[in-house]
Amino acid sequence: MWQTLANQHANWLNTTKRALKIAMIGLVSTHVLANDPLTTPPTNQPNTVPSIIEVPVSVMPVHFEASAKKVVASGSIRPISEQMLAFKTSGIIDKVWVKEGQTVKKGDLLASLLLEEIDAQVAKANAVLDDASRQLERITELKGRQLASDERGRQAQTAVQIATSDLAIAKFNRQYAVIRAPADGRVLTRHIENHELIQAGQKAFVFADLKQGWSVRLSVADVDVVKLKLKDPASIQMDAYPGQVFSGYIREIAGRSDARSQTFEVDVLLNEAPRLYSGLIAHTQITPSFTQSLAKVPMTSLIEANGTHARIYVLDEQGKAVLQNINIAYLNGAYAMVSAGVEEGEKIVVQGGPFILDGSAIAVMNTLRITPMKDSHNLTPAQ
Q1: Which CATH superfamily is domain 71-81+208-286 in?
Q2: Pair 280, 269: CB distance under 8 Å
């Protein structure tokens, strides 16, 4: 910070040195002329020799406004909808129809199992149902002739119901002996090969639904996450697309911290995105909706600084420079955002401060104001 302060004072230092040299030359010349009998004025005329050298400075009025410190974090690009696809039943993989990274349409076949065993299970369930149905018919006929009890009839009905359920299960398993794309998207990873034995529920593919969009998953510290809300705007830059800035907003904020890092996961949705891949690195700046009233003070005005405490020169009612303590909320580029220590409208010395003695007289060369220029601010003479 002090290196920046020194650089910003450099031009003013040269100007001030020249002004002081001219003032000293004028003072010496006046003293010589005062002792010259040819130029010495009569004793009844006042002496015009200056007793104080005024330090030339530039000042700026203090203005408070609602400000928010941007939350800066980096994370990875992820699809909003990232799904793990698997087979419903175990079996031998007949064929894998897609490659890793391939884009597919909804309903496209991704992989299938050999159906011999599954078809046999369906046939078995059909046979059991047929037999149970015949038994129910026979028991019903015997009951009509008073040759079978009601209990036998209930058992036969139960057997039919069980066989019907088993057949439905076998047909359902056969239906999901293939994996199809659940939506238009991309196969992110593929974990199976032809002729492998796979268990029910074992990961086969990781699939991204591209229509749901992309987001940046960030890890944010506790001091920053408390300032964020859903829909807070963000700007995103990616190493893969240098020089381009994308817009987005907060989609999700985790309700608890990560057990390892003790940070909170924040999900930022991209409004529009180019061709992306899961895992790309993104750098974000989030503008919180939480604001506080702060004054923007140039770093050149700081005389001393220690952490969040600093000292600057403020003009009092007599126009003299008085050293005053201030509290710094945070730094924003070439400016310090001040939360306390100055009042609205007070004039502070922004250039020439290092050459002032506390309470000394000053000569205000010009009054500056902060003019916004896109994302930065410049000091310009007030009109």
Answers
A1: Efflux pump adaptor protein, beta barrel domain (2.40.30.170)
A2: no
